[in-house]
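Work Package 3 (structural annotation) set out to generate three-dimensional models for the target panel prioritized at the project kickoff. During this period the team completed the workflow that converts sequence records into discrete structure tokens, so that structures can be stored uniformly alongside our sequence database. As a representative example, we reproduce one entry of 107 residues exactly as it appears in the project archive.
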Amino acid sequence: MDIIKGNFLNRDEVKAHYKYFVFIFGLLMVMIYSNHLVNKKIEQVNKLKEETEEYKSRNAYAQSRLIKIRMESELGKEMVQDSLVSLESHPMKLLIKVDSTDGKAAK
């Protein structure tokens, strides 16, 4: 019951060591605060990592489009040099069915 009431804090032995208790309490508060700061930094680093990955993917997409545009422009220059013109419509694909029994083309 003395512990609940706090009477043990009034004893002479405990009074002699109050400065140590206060020191330990202060150290605990500093430790808790530094842990809080570390957690905030970890969250910030994780957020920056996610942003970095997003920017890397955007950069890769932009580079692939740039390479494609460069290839198309180089191909266009070579076509002009060879006096070729690009097609207005795509070519049609012809499918020929072969009869599997006698190897002749079906109509």
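The mean pLDDT is 83.
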